[in-house]
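Morning!

As promised:
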Amino acid sequence: MAYMRSNALRGHLESLTLSALRQGDAHGFEILRRLEKAGSGVLKLKEGSLYPALYRLEAAGMIKGQWEDSASPRRGPRRRIYRLTQKGLRRLHEARSEFQQFVAVIGGILGASA
Amino acid sequence: MKELMIHVERIVRPLHASRARKLRMRQELLAHLQAAFDEEREHCPDETTAVVRATQRLGDPAQLAHQLQKSLPLIEGILYTKVPFHVGLDELERFSPATGMLALIVESYLSLRTLVLAAPFLFSDTAHRFSNLLVDHPLRCLIGSLALGFIMLIWVCICIKFATTVALSVKAWRLKRVIQCAFAIVGMLAIWTLAAAEIAGQTATISLVGRSVALSSILLLILTSIGRVFARIPRPYEKWLSLDIAG
């Protein structure tokens, strides 16, 4: 099975991140895990590329980050936990509609409708 | 783990961003890399191989740095870009908010005051009173003040740099540093002479220059003292900056 790499995902990573956060608050590593799990192993991206997307989303107010509680029993560097905001949720709905339209139109032209 | 920190530092150090933001990125990327490393270790007994795999998963440092820079506000990228003499907001920030704030207050005051002194050259019809100038020529005052303010900000930044780094380290005395210091001292003298002359409503005299020298020295001393106090406080980013990321 061919992997779907970063180039093919360009432009969709932010929507995918919002979608992963819909399942609940998560740190960067967990978001990647969720995406890879949802992609059934086909989705492969350079893990670092998630962070610019997270920073853009946070600056746009679509997600909100908060440092992990320092009283956490986990050892190692502190993680930043992100949660979806109302604005992010609205953007996710929009992105879904846009993508459905895209698939319907392009799929129809290519003769490979979903 | 040091190898993981070095990889993170290769990504973050070249960024033009505030220290707070860079520290946040460092912590977050290190947490990610540590998790990737732990995952790799479950399948691979060799630690070195696990480090290589974890860093490869994160991606090429230069490429990631480029992506991260693009994700930051443009204005932040511009503000934290180094300019000649390595003066920038980065310098002010390093020398603690207190020192930076003091310098900004002094700079704001002096730039406005200097504008009054420059009035005869800027306005042909003028009264020398500052309040009159503001009322009659608000736009010119604003532009003049901003232009002079910018030049003086550079002066003040150099002064702070001198006061808190060069003065603390004899080893740092090199030709470039000497030029910076000379520039800073001359700048301070010029500013204070102009300001003192204006305040006294006089032309510059030897006595006025003497007072300027005294005031310049006092200001430099205050900045140095504040700098010394804050320089002793360990900063969370220092362990990162001490890493050798070459290679």
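The radius of gyration of chain A is 16 Å.

Hope this helps with the figure draft.
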